[in-house]
Design a protein that fits this description.
The structure holds 3 protein chains of 3 kinds.
Chain A lengths: L5 H23 L5 E2 L12 E2 L2 H8 L11 E2 L2 E2 L10 H4 L11 H16 L6 H4 L6 H7 L1
Antiparallel strand pairs in A: 1-2, 3-4
Chain B lengths: L10 H8 L3 H15 L2 H9 L11 H5 L8 H7 L1 H6 L6 H13 L17 H14 L5 H13 L7 H18 L14 E4 L3 H5 L1 H13 L4 E2 L12 H4 L2 H18 L3 E4 L3 H14 L9 E3 H10 L9 E7 L3 H4 L5 H11 E4 L26 H6 L2 H10 L3 E3 L3 H13 L5 E3 L1 H8 L7
Parallel strand pairs in B: 1-2, 1-3, 3-4, 5-6, 5-7, 7-8
Helix pairs in contact in B: 1-7, 7-8, 10-12, 12-22, 14-15, 16-18, 18-22
Chain C lengths: L1 H8 L1 H28 L2 H5 L2 H12 L5 H5 L1 H20 L1 H11 L8 H24 L1 H4 L4 H22 L4 H21 L4 H19 L6
Helix pairs in contact in C: 1-2, 2-11, 4-12, 6-8, 8-10, 10-11
Classes of the chains: A mainly alpha, B alpha/beta, C mainly alpha.
Bound molecules: protoporphyrin IX containing FE (HEM) (2 copies) and iron/sulfur cluster (SF4) (2 copies).
């Protein structure tokens, strides 16, 4: 997975871009339902299910930067937020330095909070369900 | 092969077991385990994964059409496992059966070690069972009698000192008819080599002493034999589990060599004796290596031939096969040296399959033949594979540098009507070597 | 709902690892002491060369006579043991847990490959079970404990597989998986699975007794 040849990388990159080009318009009007970060390339697990609006309502999150945080020089900048950026802009898939690797960043962001609050999914399969994440789609609308 | 259904009577086992009480059994077993049951016992029993892979190693198992009660681990299951599990609370009847299995259904040949992925030494475990049975006084009668002979006379055959000296002088006389200058030097202090043999040689096979003397003499070896105890290197006590006596025997043997101030001990063509002197007895006495270097006759002959001390006059005009004695192949890796000598003296060798350090035991070793006539058929039924191996070679002569192999294979040859006969290396060398001084 | 999961993943996992590591150390050290007391020659005779010779001949497929005589068994047991050791160590899900808890991570197997390897382990257990039930030489020396061991060994792989595929109640299988994995670990020092600890030591000694003392092979 992490070890892929360059050719495969480029190939997958092109494929993902085409897919994104086709799919993004279809989804753009809807609420986000999965965190399908293109940066991962070919993935080991189905993308994590995440119904943005529903989640934030349930979790009573008002501020964007609770999740879309921005760090500068290792410090969290309190009043800034980063929703205009992709997570992968700062978090590399591979190297952890200076930021957390991308997968860990996602895991930490979601699970960290879920564990703290004692609510929400914390096991692999709860976020990465096999097959079509039908239930989430439905509840998302 | 059908196992004789009738129970085999053996006074050593029957009367020994009749004297036991459960209390005594428990006490003795726990005493032995506490004093002698070390890490090896524990690890071997604990890590055996009960896979049964050792089975294919054992000639008893193979010869009984893969009856698992004869497999190496099967024998442990029937003896040591219940003893350990019940912490010594087993019946006299159980002890009797355990003694029978450990003494007459395992040759301690260690072939199964080549087959066990865990490296469990089943022979060691069977010796542990024999040790317990010995301490309980339940050992097959014939071998116990031999062990008594060791205790009383320091040799295996109740040979008295004058009879021993007499036998040597008699053989010296005989040999001087052939080589007039020949001596069998008794008690020669400072000789290079002390030659030691097993009790049965003066008793039944004095001819072998004659032949050895001729070879020593013609090879120009500065040699001697002890006139008092220590001449017998054999050891039934090692096999009955009477280790205290084994220690005395080995000490006596080494002390004879030290008294004679020899450079090394050469042992006659016997496997078990070599095991007891080189591998087992020295350890019991606390010597990592024997205090006086010891070599088996097969190695000695190899060295004489290699160094040109003995020369081939004519080839033994027959194709032969070689019965590898476990105690000098798995016991010392001498298989190629044996072949070196045999190939020099014989027309050709047809190997049995498997051979060398993967050989099958003769089924006499480990003291099994010494359990005597009551148990003979166990050896015959327990080694059908050897009969098949021998028959497949199609030759008439089997060479084997081991007394036990001779006894065992001879019985098999008769029982299975194979029409073959056995020779020692010494027989062939004596027959076919150059004899410059002979008349 | 977090409660049970957190318990098996937290305190129980600590217990399992302490039993596994502490128990293994205890077994090794107490055996060392016993050997020092009762079998000193073990230390006298063991040599590095013959220890390695023996171990290598028995961990390389077809390196010894018995494994050549039984090719099917050899292939099964090697596939079984390699997968058995590699999957828990190199499984992505496990490494993520290590990373989350202790910030350590290492190379991982692709999930699809690990999935197949888990099935190989289960199939291996099936083969061993079949041997125990049908092959006289194994059947004769099999007792209830041997089936229990096989069950302990197979359980984390079966439950892990089911959890991974999220069939029939994901969380149930996951919690059962973690529990069975913990039993698996804790059982190693205290059952016949301790052959993992003693195999190299046993071989080192017997290989040296054969090689250094008696100048012969043990394979
Ligand atoms: C402390 C103990 C353990 C924990 C917390 C743990 C946790 C996990 C987790 C979270 C998964 C992923 C499930 C999923 O994909 O949703 C998993 C899968 C798996 N684990 Fe464990 N595990 C433990 C011990 C073990 C042990 C000891 C073994 C093996 C001996 C093992 C073998 C497996 C296997 C085979 C899979 C599934 C792989 C597949 O089929 O793709 N686990 N484990
Ligand atoms: C490095 C470590 C290990 C080595 C060298 C090793 C070696 C062996 C060997 C030589 C056998 C004998 C039979 C055969 O070849 O299959 C065996 C059997 C077995 N091993 Fe291992 N093993 C190791 C680790 C483990 C572990 C960690 C487990 C499970 C926790 C395990 C489970 C088993 C089982 C269940 C059997 C018995 C199969 C049967 O029922 O016949 N092994 N192992
Ligand atoms: S006779 Fe040889 S192969 Fe059979 S159990 Fe005894 S030592 Fe092992
Ligand atoms: S091969 Fe070794 S581990 Fe397997 S049953 Fe025999 S003695 Fe036990």
């Amino acid at each position: 997975m992490r070890k892929r040849t360059l050719a495969l990388n480029i190939g997958m990159g092109i494929l993902v871009s085409i897919l994104a080009f086709v799919l993004i318009p279809a989804y753009s009007q809807e609420d986000i339902v999965t965190l399908e970060d293109d940066a991962f390339g070919d993935r080991q697990r189905p993308a994590a299910v995440f119904a943005h609006e529903e989640h934030n309502e349930k979790a009573e999150i008002e501020e964007c930067n609770v999740c879309h945080h921005l760090y500068q020089h290792g410090e969290k900048v309190e009043d800034e937020s980063s929703e205009s950026m992709g997570c992968a802009d700062c978090h590399n898939v591979k190297e952890g330095y200076p930021t957390m690797p991308l997968m860990k960043a996602y895991h930490d962001m979601c699970q960290g909070c879920h564990k703290e609050k004692g609510e929400g999914p914390i096991t692999c399969g709860e976020c990465h369900p096999r097959g079509e994440p039908v239930a989430s789609h439905e509840t998302a609308h | 092969m059908a196992e004789p259904a009738k129970r085999i009577e053996d006074a050593g086992l029957d009367e020994g077991a009749a004297k036991l009480t459960p209390e005594k059994i428990e006490k003795v077993i726990n005493g032995v385990l506490a004093a002698e049951g070390g890490a090896r016992l524990k690890v071997y029993v604990d890590t055996c994964v009960h896979c049964g892979l050792c089975s294919d190693a054992c000639h008893y198992y193979l010869s009984h059409d893969k009856d698992p009660t004869y497999s190496p681990v099967g024998k442990v299951k029937q003896t040591l496992w219940p003893i350990l599990k019940n912490k010594g609370r087993v019946s006299p009847e159980f002890i009797k059966k355990a003694s029978e299995i450990a003494s007459t259904e395992c040759n301690l040949c260690r072939r199964c070690v080549h087959y066990c992925p865990m490296g469990v030494d089943i022979a060691y475990l069977m010796v542990m069972v024999r040790r317990i049975c010995h301490r309980l006084g339940v050992t097959p009668l014939y071998i116990q009698d031999t062990a008594h002979s060791h205790s009383a006379t320091m040799n295996q055959m109740w040979v008295k000192e004058d009879e021993w000296i007499d036998s040597l002088q008699w053989q010296e006389d005989e040999a001087r008819d052939e080589i007039p200058t020949l001596r069998i030097p008794l008690e020669k202090e400072g000789a290079d080599v002390m030659y030691s043999i097993i009790g049965p040689e003066p008793k039944f096979r004095a001819q072998l002493i004659y032949q050895a003397a001729v070879i020593m003499d013609l090879a120009g070896v500065d040699w001697t034999m002890p006139a008092s105890t220590g001449w017998d290197n054999s050891d039934m006590c090692m096999f009955t589990g009477e280790f205290e006596m084994m220690g005395r025997l080995k000490r006596d043997h080494f002390e004879a060599a030290q008294r004679l101030k020899v450079k090394k001990i050469v042992m006659g063509e016997c496997g078990h004796a070599y095991r007891s002197v080189y591998d087992v007895g020295n350890r019991w006495l606390g010597w990592k290596w024997p205090p006086v270097p010891v070599i088996h006759a097969a190695q000695f002959f190899y060295e004489l031939l290699r160094d040109g001390k003995i020369k081939v006059a004519k080839k033994f005009d027959e194709v032969v096969t070689i019965q590898d004695p476990c105690n000098i192949v798995r016991g010392m890796g001498l298989h190629e040296k044996v072949r070196y000598v045999v190939k020099a003296f014989c027309k050709d060798v047809v190997e049995m399959e498997p051979n060398r350090d993967h050989n099958f035991c003769c089924c006499a070793g480990g003291g099994v033949i010494n359990c005597g006539p009551p148990w003979k058929m166990k050896r015959m039924h327990g080694n059908r594979v050897k009969a098949e191996q021998l028959a497949a070679t199609g030759v008439k002569t089997v060479i084997s540098p081991c007394h036990n192999c001779h006894g065992g294979i001879e019985d098999i040859i008769h029982h299975y009507k194979l029409g073959m006969h056995l020779k020692f290396l010494g027989d062939i060398i004596y027959d076919c070597m150059e004899k410059p001084g002979a008349v | 709902m977090h409660g049970l999961y957190n318990f098996v993943r937290g305190p129980l996992a600590w217990v399992a690892f302490i039993l596994f590591i502490g128990g293994s150390l205890y077994r090794l050290i107490s055996m060392y002491k016993l050997a020092r007391k009762k079998d000193v020659f073990v230390f006298e005779y063991t040599t590095l060369y013959f220890a390695l010779r023996s171990i290598l001949h028995w961990i390389i497929p077809f390196g010894n006579i018995n494994s050549r005589n039984r090719p099917i068994f050899t292939i099964v047991t090697f596939a079984f043991h390699i997968c058995l050791l590699a999957v828990p160590i190199f499984l992505l899900a496990h490494i993520i847990l290590w990373d989350e808890s202790f910030n350590i991570n290492w190379w991982s197997l692709p999930d699809g490959v690990a999935d197949i390897m888990a099935l190989i382990v289960v199939a291996g257990c099936g083969y061993f079970l079949w041997r125990r039930l049908t092959q006289p030489e194994a059947k004769f020396v099999t007792s209830a404990g041997d089936y229990v061991i096989l069950a302990i060994v197979a359980a984390p792989f079966i439950t892990g597989f089911l959890a991974y595929h999220q069939w029939l109640g994901y969380k149930f299988w996951l919690i059962l998986h973690i529990l069975s994995g913990e039993i698996w670990l804790a059982a190693i020092p205290f059952t016949r699975l301790s052959h993992m600890l003693f195999f190299p030591l046993n071989r080192a000694y017997i290989g040296s007794e054969f090689g250094a003392v008696r100048h012969v092979r043990d394979y």
